[in-house]
Amino acid sequence: MNILKNDKQVLKELGKEVSEIAHLPVNEKRRTAWKQLNGLKRVKPLTCIYEIPWHEMNVGEELTLKTNDALSKQTEWNLRETLYRWKHLPGDMVVEPVIYSPLSITDTGIGITEDVGVAKTDKKNPIVSRHFNIQISHEDDIEKIKMPTVTHNAEITEQNYAALQDIFDGIIPVQIGGIKDPVFNAWDELVRWTGIEEALTDISQRPDCIVWTNTKI
Question: H/E element holding 132?
Fold first, then answer.
């Protein structure tokens, strides 16, 4: 992977900033507090701000990307997002002293794809109003849902890892990592296929169908 010299320098500087922040004592204090909270210990309320309208936040060009290739852009965005949150809305966030190199993973999907009508009021906003076209209306339709085949391209994963190691060597450690903070919102997925009003009606009149569909998804 041939990453431009200028791109490497941009990432190095951002990596230095993140590394400096990650080694501040407050991170360990907050990390301990989160562990205590997750361990059902009585601690002060902790805050984590993550639902952010990023398309509206780049007032001072702090989020403007300056790199070119896909890996560099994604890495730069992760670093700039971390620095932005730390500066402007940290809450009780913990900055880890590591750069995660992504796994190269693809999948075949679940047999059906979202079919929607979209209404936009702001072209830059990734959040849009959607009308879901129903794809599962009775039990037989559930058979449309298939188990995806997941594929890992180990060669590309290693190439990405080597490239990031070269950039951040002596600045901040690099680790290969998969999806961080995976989220599965069952209701959000369900209504994409069945419709919102229809799902609510089924919960009342056909609860077994809802349980079955949700299990298949």
Answer: strand 129-132
